Amino acid sequence: MTHSYVFDVRLHDVDHAGVMFFARLFVHAHDAYEVFMAHLGLDLCAMIHTGERLPVVHASADYFQPLRHGEQITVTLEIETLGTSSFTVAYAFHASESLLAKVRTVHAYLDPSFNAAAPLPPTLRQSLRPYCNTLNV
Amino acid sequence: MTHSYVFDVRLHDVDHAGVMFFARLFVHAHDAYEVFMAHLGLDLCAMIHTGERLPVVHASADYFQPLRHGEQITVTLEIETLGTSSFTVAYAFHASESLLAKVRTVHAYLDPSFNAAAPLPPTLRQSLRPYCNTLNV
Amino acid sequence: MTHSYVFDVRLHDVDHAGVMFFARLFVHAHDAYEVFMAHLGLDLCAMIHTGERLPVVHASADYFQPLRHGEQITVTLEIETLGTSSFTVAYAFHASESLLAKVRTVHAYLDPSFNAAAPLPPTLRQSLRPYCNTLNV
Amino acid sequence: MTHSYVFDVRLHDVDHAGVMFFARLFVHAHDAYEVFMAHLGLDLCAMIHTGERLPVVHASADYFQPLRHGEQITVTLEIETLGTSSFTVAYAFHASESLLAKVRTVHAYLDPSFNAAAPLPPTLRQSLRPYCNTLNV
Description:
The structure is a homotetramer.
Chain A: E1 3-8, H1 24-39, H2 44-50, E2 56-63, E3 72-82, E4 86-95, E5 98-108, H3 122-128
Antiparallel strand pairs in A: 1-3, 2-5, 3-4, 4-5
């Protein structure tokens, strides 16, 4: 299973050269992640209030083709790896069938009591598993 | 008295047309405000922790000339009005003697106990007064 | 007639105090404006390439209630005034029937040949008129 | 040789959890890069006008500790690899001697005539070399 998210490249996304400023790709990836988590019934806002955290500990992006002002982009999201106390989300950015860019974000689970890395709670693991299409589950 | 703040227009500030995206002007105005407040010994971060708030209740900008990628901008900040429970900050944006834009932000004081508008604390009023160059003090 | 645009308040929209950073409201207003213009058949990206410009020459916002992380916001957009060489767009931001904020942006028309203010082209004026609900048309 | 760049973490940099939103780290890295390039006499803005491009083709970040509102951050920048038609910039983010995060950006050189990857011009290579502290020069 994968999860899809659609957005349009806006004027404020692009820079002087008329293409998306590279850091904006991470913002859109995180928007896709928020919608994905909400779809799983996981409310990031509520987690912040309870002290649970899934901070990004690593992020990377590969840019194959520029994302242009006015283009409609589809982000396809899956869980690339599901570790003991962290997981990796992979995002593919397409426009009209062309793969434009890829992003990865690695999220660690922080226990609210200790503010330290802790094993992923079983319910979180179970929610993410269907989107993990590799063998490392 | 006025307070000065300098910044450079970066690639991510400008849009497809090569000039600063209008909303970015407010971000730089707020950066100037944070530095100004710190200069007065007022730590916005600490205030957020204690529950004191000075939210922006009104903001406006006039754009006379575009701010261009690579330009160095000087922001001159003063207190335009100092009311009972709010104050107005006025910011002038110059490059090489030319006035490019003006911004105003109106900040209300929220009492931490009641989360409602309240008179400006005397120490805050006293800190701001020297930067208020009009007669309404 | 009015035009509606919906968005969700994301983690990157809110600041330390858990509410939308004031400058972000202008970004969302402009997103609503881009979608509105596209709905009228006016492609801002194409205009930038041909040299036509509708730069924001004035912007203002009134903040009545904070916009909170996770809220779904409806923006209702109309043309407040339709002048000879400029027009004013008014945006109302609602969540669950409550009016949270208002934004206004004033756009001037710049002629591509002269890079100077010029009368709005008749087709642009005609497209905007149905959304102008006041008597100044 | 390394190049240093200093900035303060502002209210608009941090999110609901009070720490820098991960994508903002890339924005500050790029600001450091712009200042570095200007220091070498390389004007990114002028390059955009002539059609020369050094687009980011890969970016990554490792987050060790959160960057907090109000902290002053020093970015130390060096050239990690200097390839035939691309180079990698490495950025270390410190506050008070603690290493908080690392960023890498890989820039490809695009020839203005062909809009395709091309060997780095000799002057660019020569400017970058002193900041390349590894053996792969």
